[in-house]
Design brief:
229 residues; mainly alpha; 10 helices; 83% helix
Length: 229
């Protein structure tokens, strides 16, 4: 709502500025129309320029970071991502801060810094995120809690994100992660046979290096739970 009123205020100020220019320079209606189109064109070009100069390089860095995580090189790029997060905080850009926090939490999980990942994620209000980013938030939170053996927190986070898991479960970008989170939930519920069946299926379906390590970790925990039962 605040953003909406901010945009309205900017629009009003911008419109008044144009009218003042028309009055000062005594423009005809036709000249004012041409002038307005030039101004709008300049604004659009400026936005595109900002995207190319600032946003595009930022997204390239994050894409590189995620590729390195997938290939087992998260440790090498975490310092750079931490620096990007610091810069976003200095700019007081909430959306960018949340974006970097989510990606950095994935790096922390991959390097077994689970408590750091949880601490980072708990700073985010999931309701302020878009649906796909909310999904990543709950996937990362469930995973981090599972790895510190906080089963109640896993199930609480899983329940909070369940509608999103169902919505995105067939999405090619997120299906593998959601399959993992479902297995974690079965383990935490004590449904070990169901967890093993789902794990066997996931192993056949998702074969990259990152998930191989994840599956091995889950299998170890399932075996420990069976032995302790």
């Amino acid at each position: 709502m605040k953003r909406f009123f901010k945009l309205i205020s900017i629009g009003v100020v911008f419109g008044l500025s144009l009218l003042i220019c028309k009055s000062l320079f005594k423009m005809s209606d036709q000249s004012f129309k041409v002038f307005t189109w030039y101004i709008f064109g300049a604004v659009i070009l400026g936005a595109l320029g900002f995207n190319l100069i600032y946003t595009h390089p930022m997204r390239k860095k994050v894409f590189k970071f995620m590729k390195m995580i997938e290939s087992g090189q998260a440790e090498e790029c975490i310092p750079e991502m931490e620096q990007l997060l610091k810069e976003a905080k200095k700019r007081k850009s909430k959306k960018r801060v949340q974006f970097y926090q989510l990606n950095l939490s994935a790096g922390y999980i991959e390097t077994r810094r689970f408590e750091d990942a949880i601490k980072l994620l708990k700073k985010i209000d999931p309701q302020s995120l878009k649906s796909d980013m909310q999904l990543v938030y709950y996937i990362n939170l469930c995973t981090a809690y599972f790895m510190v053996n906080d089963k109640d927190a896993v199930l609480e986070s899983y329940s909070a994100g369940q509608k999103l898991f169902e919505t995105y479960r067939k999405n090619r970008h997120y299906a593998s992660n959601i399959a993992v989170v479902n297995i974690l939930a079965y383990v935490c519920q004590g449904s070990l046979d169901k967890a093993k069946d789902e794990l066997a299926e996931a192993k056949e379906t998702y074969a990259n290096l990152r998930f191989k390590r994840t599956f091995e970790e889950i299998e170890r925990i399932i075996n420990e739970d069976e032995e302790g039962a």
